[in-house]
Structures are given as structure tokens and as C-alpha cells.
Amino acid sequence: MKAKTLAIIILLAVLALPPLTPPVHGGMAGGPITASVGATLRGVAPAVAPPLAKPDTLAMLEESPFGKPSFAPQPSPLARSVGEGLGVRTAQQSQNVELVGRIEGATLAVAVQGQYAYVGVGPRLVVLDVSEPSRPVEVGRTSLLPGVVRGVAVSGMYAYVADMDAGLRVIDVSDPSSPREVGSYDTPGYAIGIAVSGTYAYVADGYAGLRVIDVSNPSSPREVGFYDTPGDASGVAVSGMYAYVADGYAGLRVIDVSNPSSPREVGFYDTPGDASGVAVSGSYAYVADGRAGFVILRLLRDKVTGSVPPTGGTLSSTSGDTQFVFPAGAVTQTITLVYRHLWTDQDTGPLVGIGHTFEVTAVYSDTGQPAQLAPGQTYTVTVRYADAEKGPAIENTLALYYWDGSRWVKEPSSAVDTAANTITAHPNHLSLWAVLGETRRVYLPLVLRNYR
Q1: Which helix (H) or strand (E) holds 211?
Q2: Is residue 131 pLDDT above 80, yes or no?
Q3: CATH of domain 30-72+104-299
Q4: What's the start-to-end Cα distance of the chain, in Å?
């Protein structure tokens, strides 16, 4: 009896102890990022992506030459010690970041739309007015939800909540002061992350993978498809017709959701840690990778590597739609040539891309140092396009452009053959290239007046 009583007393004493502050490790809690991990993926897209030229092309990932991230261990910007209402700040409170507002409570999820932040506080969704960031004001909260709010996405008048073992909950937030649940779908796993695009909600459902749920009728969500990822789906981002899933120990998975009823994996990258969150912008995916830190992945459709000796040579894309021909004398030493087909066209300004943006780089095979053409030499680039790829571009305006560091510049030697569906150019440098075209031309009327 004494032993049992003593065990209870020890347990109560342990529960009464203040929470331990976890140690701050380099690469985890604080400190500026002084370098970033780069990697590359065969196949992916931006927040509102242009039409993809080849939706059935498999995605690919590769290590990028940028190296691993370096983290300087610093105290956490919001670190505090026990003793004061909001905590006693450490000597190094922050670096280049200023705390302007805060609310108390265990929060695990947040989304912002307009002047409101939608915060998961335990088993409730709380709506805060953040129009004055230094004074966030609670304007409404839901009643107790059946699970813990782990993810929030807001679209239109609804907030979509990943509610752990309670699945997806749909909250009407048209009146921020009175958010109320109007629909739900009990997913088979543990709903941790969520993204919404159009009339579909994409739920990262733990061991149950990615679930695709039709929310066109918010009061009656229904699952229309799923993909059982190999890991534990913890986060999800959607761009264009692809969902990017942070899949725990299985890294980043790229899922084609162009057919919501039949999602399929088209690419992956096995990150060094446990992927728990992901965001996508342009041709890059940004992954929160647990203890392995922050990983940046570059998204590609294709990558081909080959050698070109001084006697000349050729290199073609995997599909053969892009070809490079180097004549004898184009290089003075053997080079290793790398072709990378980027996933999306970017920063096209008034022009429009047709899905053919690619980078050509080279190093000397014996030294690994960057290489260029011999002075006065050129090579031939031929890009073949399909009629379906042209989109809104005016075909006879299509041309090869190179990126000069701030804008796209038309290659002077570029010529389009609309009968053969090819663009050919003879540039004198390696670069980042894109096939771009005009979408409209304005003709001003000519008015002739007969003066007598």
C-alpha cells in the first residue's frame, strides 16, 4: 500500500513540474539561414499555374549543387523563462524579427484571409481580427470540435479544418463573430494537413495518405478519391493539377490530381528527415523536414546529362522534343552538358510560355569548373512543340528567349517554322531558355482624309 501511495505522490509531483524548455539545436530553432539546400524534381507547378504542356510526364527530383543548409545556433526569437506573465525574455530576444502581437493558448494551426486570422486553439477554431497586428482581437470561436485542430485552410466563406481523428470539418465563417460547423467527413486516418483548390479539399491524413474530398456542397462533403502514400501524410500543398504531400519519413510525394477520382504519384524526393510541411512557389517546393531542417527542392520535368568533346556532339531531351547540336570546335575541351526542363514558365510578363522553359549548363569534364563555348562559336537548338501546347500564343510570334538576369531577351537567331512546329536558333552562349510568344497584337486603324 505504501509503495502504491508513494508512486501516486511521485506521479503528482512530476505532473506539477513546469514544462522543460527543449534545448536549442543548430538547424532547428533559431538563427538565420546562411545557405539553403537545393534539390531538383522531375515534374511540378505554381500557386496558380499556367496550363501544363505535358500533364502525363513523370515528375523527377535530383540533388541540386547548392549544398546543405548551415544554421547558426541562436536562442529562439520567442524563447521565454518561467516567472513573468508573458515570460521573461532572454538577452537575445530576436534577430531581424519583431514580436508585435500574441494570444495565449496551445495553437497548432493558422490561416489568414483578409483582416482575419483563423487559429486552431486546441479543439476550437478561433477567429481573430488582425487588422491591427499589435492588438489581435478575438471576434468569434466555434463550439468544441470533436478533435484537435491541426490544419486550417480558408476559401470563400468557409474554413476547412483538419481535425485529427475527427477528419475534415467545414466551418461557415461568413459571420466571423459566429463561426459554425455546417458539414464534416470522417477520414479513415488522422487529418493533420489540409489544402483547398476549387471545389476539392485535399487532406493529409496520416497513415491513410492523401484524401480528395468534394466540398462543392459544404454541408455534405464526400470523398471522391485517395492515394495511399508510403509514409505518414502530414502536410499538403496544391498547385495546378498537382498535390505535394509532406509524407513523414517518405519525404515529398508529388501526386497528379488532374483526375480527382484517381490520384497517382508522378514523382518523389526522399528528404533526409521527416517531412511535415510543404509550400510550393514557381518551380520550387519548400519542405519543413523535422530535425533535418529546411529543404528546398527544384521542380523539373526532365533532366539529361551528356558529354561533348572538341570534335562535336549532340544532346537530346528524353522525349526528343529538344535537341542541341555542337559542331567541331564549339568547345576546346570535353564538357559535361546538363539539360534541365523546368516544370513551369516563369516571369513571362506580357508574353506567354508554351511549357518549354529549360536550362543548359556545362562544366569541364576534367576540372568540374564552369564551361562556355569557344570564342566566336555557336551551337544549334531545336525545339519541337505540339499544337496543343500553343495555348493562347500566336504561333508565328513564337521564339526562343534567354534570361539575362532580370528579363527575357529574344535570341536574334531564333526562327519559327509553323509548318514543322519547330523553333530553331544558333546562340553563342549557354543559358536559361524559354519558348515564348505574343498573345495579341493591336492594329490601329488608318484614316485617310481627302482634303481639297
Answers
A1: strand 210-214
A2: yes
A3: 2.130.10.10
A4: 123
Residue 119 has pLDDT above 90, yes or no: yes
Is pLDDT at 17 greater than 90 in this prediction?
no
Residues in the chain: 452
Gap between the Cα atoms of 74 and 78, Å rounded? 11
* Residues paired with 223 in a beta bridge: 213
H/E stretch holding 383: strand 380-384
**C-alpha–C-alpha distance, residues 30 and 100, integer Å:** 18
Residue 412 C-alpha cell reads as: 536574334
Does position 78 have pLDDT exceeding 90, yes or no?
A: no
- Give residue 264's Cα distance to chain centre: 18
DSSP 370: B
Give the burial class of 146: count Cβ atoms within 10 A of its Cβ; 0-12 exposed, 13-18 middle, 19 or more buried. middle
pLDDT at 230 over 70: yes
Distance CA 203, CA 128 (A): 24
Please name which of 293, 295, 329 lies closest in space to residue 310, comparing C-alpha atoms.
329
**pLDDT at residue 443 above 90?**
no
Residue 64's pLDDT is 42
Sequence ranges of the domains in the chain: 30-72+104-299, 309-437
Q: What are phi and psi of 14, to 5 degrees?
A: -65, -45
pTM for this prediction: 0.71
The dihedral of CA 223, 227, 233, 236: what is its sign?
Answer: negative
φ, ψ dihedrals at 236, nearest 5° = -150, 140
Model confidence at 93, pLDDT cuts 50, 70, 90, reads low
The span from the CA of 119 to the CA of 108, in Å, is: 8
Strand order in the sheet with 252-256: 235-239, 242-246, 252-256, 264-269
Is pLDDT of 418 > 80?
A: yes
CA distance 350 to 397: 13
Per-residue pLDDT band for 96 (boundaries 50, 70, 90) equals confident
Q: Which CATH number fits domain 309-437: 2.60.40.1510, 3.40.50.1100, 2.60.220.30, 3.30.450.20?
A: 2.60.220.30
Q: Are the beta carbons of 253 and 243 closer than 8 angstroms?
A: no
